[in-house]
C-alpha cells in the first residue's frame, strides 16, 4: 500500500458562447478542475479532485511527490502535516492545500479499493444509506432578466424540495429574485440564497431585512471571508441562518469562525479545505459547537462523490431518530460536462436524494476517453 506515483490531469470544459453564468462578482466562461491520479505499488489507482487553477497545481506537483512517493497510503496524513508545518510561509489558503485536498481524496479512494471498503467506512463509518441534496442554480448570467425565470421553472419541474439561488447585485435585486423564486416554487420549497461575499455588513442587513418574509433557509457568504467580526455581528442580529465556508482552508480557518459562534451552517469544500483529512476535523469542530454543516460542491463528479461519502459518515448528533433538517449536499444544476461526462457511473439525485455507493473506494469509475476530450493542453 505504498504510494508509487501521483499525477495531475488538468481539465477544462468551455461553455458555449453566451452561456456564461455565475455569481454577483463574476461569470464563468468555462468549468475547470484538476483530476488527481494516485497509484499504489501494486497498481491500484485512486482518483481525487483539486480545486483551483490547474496550471498552478501542476507547478506544485514535484514538491508534493517528494513528500508522498514511498509513503504508506494510510500514513499519508502525517506527511500533509509535515508539509504545512515546514512550508508555513506558503500559508494554507492556496495551492498547497488545493493539491493536498485532491491527493487525500485519491489516497482514500485507493485505500478503500485495496481494503475492499467504501470511503465512508474509512472516515467514520456509514451512518446513512442516502444523502439529501439541494439544487444549486438560479445563476446570474449575461442576461439575467431573460434567464432567471427559466432556471427557476426547471427547478420546479425537477421537483426539487430544496434549492439555492444567486443574489448579491443589490438588496432590491435580491428581493425581486427571491420573490420570483418563491412565487414559482411555492410555499413549501426550502430556498437558500448566495451573495458570494459581495456585501458589507450594512448591505447584508438591508438584504436580509428584505428577504426574511420569504422564509429563507440560509443566507450564504453575505460578507468577505476575512470579515470574522462582521459575521459575528450579523449572526447575532439576523433572523435568517448565516452560512459560509467555501473559501475557508483547513480546520484553523473554521475554528476562528466557530469559536466566535459567528455562523449557523458551515460549508467546507473537500476539494480545497484539505480533503477528508481536514474535513473530518472541521466536522468535529462543528459538532462540538452544535452547528449544522453542508459541504460546498462546485466541481466535477469526483468532488460530488467525495461529498456524498463525507456526509454519509457524519453523526446526526445532537439529533437521534428524528432529524429536523438533514445534512444537505450541494448539487450544481449549471452546464458542467465535468460533473457527469467524465464518469461512467455519475451520482445523480432521485427524489431529492443520492444513494451512497457501497463499492470499494469512492465507488465511481472514470471514463478516460471523456477525460482526454476535456484535458487542458
From TrEMBL:
Mandelate racemase/muconate lactonizing enzyme C-terminal domain sequence ranges: 145-241
Pfam families xref list: MR_MLE_C (PF13378), MR_MLE_N (PF02746)
Gene3D superfamilies named in the record: Enolase-like C-terminal domain, Enolase-like, N-terminal domain
InterPro entries: DgoD-like, Enolase-like_C_sf, Enolase-like_N, Enolase_C-like, Mandel_Rmase/mucon_lact_enz_CS, Mandelate_racemase_C, Mandelate_racemase_N_dom
PROSITE patterns assigned: MR_MLE_2
Coiled-coil ranges per UniProt: none
One BP term from GO: amino acid catabolic process
Protein origin, superkingdom: Bacteria
CDD domains per the UniProt record, alphabetical: MR_like (cd03316)
GO molecular function: lyase activity; magnesium ion binding
Keywords: Lyase
PANTHER family: D-GALACTONATE DEHYDRATASE, D-GALACTONATE DEHYDRATASE-RELATED
Protein name (record): Mandelate racemase/muconate lactonizing enzyme family protein
Amino acid at each position: 500500500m505504498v504510494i508509487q506515483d501521483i499525477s495531475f490531469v488538468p481539465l477544462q470544459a468551455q461553455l458555449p458562447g453566451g452561456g456564461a453564468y455565475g455569481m454577483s462578482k463574476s461569470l464563468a466562461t468555462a468549468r475547470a478542475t484538476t483530476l488527481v491520479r494516485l497509484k499504489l505499488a501494486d497498481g491500484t489507482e485512486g482518483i481525487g479532485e483539486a480545486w483551483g487553477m490547474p496550471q498552478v497545481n501542476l507547478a506544485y506537483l514535484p514538491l508534493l511527490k517528494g513528500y508522498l512517493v514511498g509513503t504508506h497510503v494510510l500514513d499519508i496524513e502525517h506527511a500533509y502535516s509535515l508539509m504545512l508545518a515546514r512550508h508555513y510561509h506558503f500559508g494554507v489558503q492556496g495551492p498547497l492545500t488545493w493539491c493536498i485536498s485532491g491527493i487525500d481524496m485519491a489516497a482514500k479512494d485507493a485505500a478503500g479499493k485495496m481494503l475492499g471498503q467504501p470511503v465512508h467506512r474509512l472516515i467514520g463509518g456509514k451512518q446513512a444509506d442516502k444523502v439529501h441534496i439541494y439544487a444549486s442554480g438560479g445563476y446570474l448570467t449575461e442576461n439575467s432578466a431573460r434567464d432567471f425565470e427559466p432556471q427557476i421553472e426547471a427547478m420546479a419541474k425537477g421537483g426539487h424540495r430544496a434549492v439555492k439561488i444567486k443574489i448579491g447585485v443589490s438588496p432590491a435585486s435580491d428581493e425581486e429574485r427571491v420573490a420570483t423564486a418563491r412565487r414559482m416554487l411555492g410555499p413549501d420549497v426550502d430556498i437558500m440564497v448566495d451573495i458570494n461575499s459581495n456585501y458589507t455588513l450594512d448591505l447584508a442587513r438591508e438584504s436580509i431585512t428584505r428577504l426574511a418574509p420569504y422564509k429563507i433557509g440560509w443566507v450564504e457568504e453575505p460578507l468577505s471571508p476575512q470579515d470574522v467580526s462582521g459575521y459575528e455581528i450579523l449572526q447575532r442580529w439576523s433572523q435568517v441562518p448565516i452560512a459560509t465556508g467555501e473559501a475557508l482552508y483547513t480546520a484553523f480557518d473554521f475554528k476562528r469562525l466557530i469559536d466566535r459562534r459567528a455562523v449557523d451552517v458551515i460549508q467546507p469544500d473537500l476539494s480545497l479545505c484539505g480533503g477528508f483529512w481536514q474535513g473530518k476535523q472541521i466536522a468535529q469542530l462543528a459538532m462540538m459547537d452544535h452547528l449544522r454543516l453542508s459541504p460546498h460542491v462546485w466541481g466535477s463528479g469526483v468532488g460530488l462523490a467525495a461529498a456524498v461519502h463525507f456526509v454519509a459518515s457524519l453523526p446526526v448528533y445532537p439529533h437521534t431518530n428524528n432529524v429536523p433538517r438533514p445534512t444537505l449536499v450541494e448539487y450544481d444544476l449549471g452546464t458542467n460536462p465535468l460533473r457527469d461526462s467524465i464518469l461512467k457511473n455519475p451520482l445523480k439525485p432521485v427524489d431529492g436524494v443520492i444513494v451512497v455507493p457501497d463499492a470499494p473506494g469512492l465507488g465511481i469509475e472514470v471514463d478516460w476517453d471523456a477525460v482526454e476530450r476535456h484535458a487542458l493542453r
